[in-house]
Input
Amino acid sequence: MLRLLLALFVLSMSSMCAAKDAGDQAVLDQCIASWGSKSPFRQGTPANKVFATGVKVFGVGKAAVDDAVTETPSLILVRPAVNVLGKTTIRLGNPRGWYCFRSNVTVMGKIAIEAHCDAHIASAQEDGTTVGAVDESNKGVSVFGALRISRFACK
Output
C-alpha cells in the first residue's frame, strides 16, 4: 500500500512539474478569465506576488500563511501545495488578494484553505494526467484525501 501511495505521489509531482514548465502567465490568464469582468486584471498581467505553499509529508513541514494586506488589488500566483499523509493549512489573509492556484495534491491527507471573506480564489485547469480524482470544486487532485475551503472575517 505504501509503495502505491509513493508511486501516486511521484506521478502527481511529475505531472505538476511538467505543468509548471508550461508557464506561469498561462495559468494567471486562465484565472483572470475565470473571474471574468469582476477581475481588475487584464490578460497578460503578471503576478504581483508568488506564494509558495510547500510540501508536507507525514505532517512535517511549515505552515503556509500569506498575511500581507495590500492597499490595492493584488494578483497572487499560489504554487502547488503537496500533502502526503497529513494535514496542510493554507491561510490567505489579504482581503484584496486575487489568489490564482496552479493546483494542489493530497495523498491520504487533507488540505484546508482558509481565505479572507473578501479574497478571490481561482484555480487553473492544467494539462497532464494525474492518477486520482479532481475534487468537486476543481481546486486540486485528491487521492484518498480531502480539500476544503473555508472563509474568515466575514461581515
